[in-house]
Amino acid sequence: MKMQKMKHEITEIAPNTWCLSEFRLVNAFLAEGKEKAALIDTGCGIGNLGETVKELTQKPVEIFLTHGHADHSGGIYTLPQSPVYMMKEDEKLFQEMPATNEMRRFYVKTRVPVRYPGEGNVEAITALIPEQEPEYTGEYTAVKDGDIFELGE
């Protein structure tokens, strides 16, 4: 089955709030306020989540990671100007399970057959993995329960 270039699936789940599906593998969520937007998780980094986000908002985007696993932090590199926030307790996960192209290929190989049974999308989705290993410094700002971030209304 030959496919055109695949894109993240965008579903509006509330006003100015979207679910961004990374090819049925993992989801990220975008909430837009009057002044800026919050991106909750970034997927594995398959395809360019930053481009998808910019289709929805031109406002500054702050990234919030629900935890440090690579399938939630792997797309950080697509929004290099965005600050990243995560619980300090997740730093060990973040460092022990880095988002690499090897991890992305494994994720596609093991999850695509389950999410797309019989559709043969392994090659099409694998083709969306960056050719060069994306660079990310791993810097983030620690947050704690009760922290509040204002997006503007």
Q: Topology, pairings included?
A:
Layout: E1 9-14, E2 17-21, E3 27-32, E4 37-40, H1 49-56, E5 61-64, H2 70-73, E6 84-87, H3 91-96, H4 101-115, H5 122-126, E7 141-143
Parallel strand pairs: 4-5, 5-6, 6-7
Antiparallel strand pairs: 1-2, 2-3, 3-4
Number of helical runs?
5
Main sheet: strand order: 1-2-3-4-5-6-7
**What is the CA–CA distance across the termini?**
46 Å
- How helix-rich are the residues, as a percent range? 10-25%
Estimate the mean pLDDT confidence: 92
Low-confidence stretches: none
- By secondary-structure content and strand pairing, the structural class works out as alpha/beta
Beta-strand residue percentage: 15-25%
What coarse outline follows from CA principal-axis ratios? globular
Our Rg estimate from Cα atoms comes to 15 Å
Question: SSE order in H/E notation?
Answer: EEEEHEHEHHHE
